[in-house]
Design brief:
Number of strands: 3
Helix content: 10-25%
Strand order of the largest sheet: 2-1-3
Distance between the termini: 41 Å
Structural class: alpha+beta
Order of helices and strands: EHEEHH
Strand content: 5-15%
Length: 104
């Protein structure tokens, strides 16, 4: 299942040292139908499936619209896709969403 690094959400960032991450990570395990909920800022990763069965999962990200996501997901969308996006796709991708500007 998924591996998590306890308390890593207190200083949200990507792991600097892969070996250190795995040294402190805990692997979650569950039975078919189990659900795991955790803060996305918690360092986590998928671990190899060593079973003979198929592993399936659903990722759900929920946050108020005024919170800008931790990751820049639009970075993964090519410019030609953005240019051809319909109004509905622009809404889904939040291409024109006015996230609030943080005060300095």
């Amino acid at each position: 299942g998924t591996a998590i690094r306890p308390n890593s959400h207190k200083l949200p960032r990507y792991p600097d040292d892969k070996e250190d991450f795995y040294k402190h990570a805990l692997q979650m395990e569950g039975k078919a139908g189990d659900v795991v909920v955790f803060a996305g800022a918690l360092q986590h990763c998928a671990m190899p499936n060593r079973s003979k069965g198929l592993r399936a999962g659903i990722l759900q990200h929920m946050a108020p619209v005024y919170i800008k996501p931790f990751e820049d997901m639009l970075e993964y969308v090519t410019e030609d896709v953005k240019a051809r996006a319909t109004p509905e796709m622009k809404r889904i991708l939040a291409l024109e969403h006015p996230y609030p500007v943080l005060k300095k």
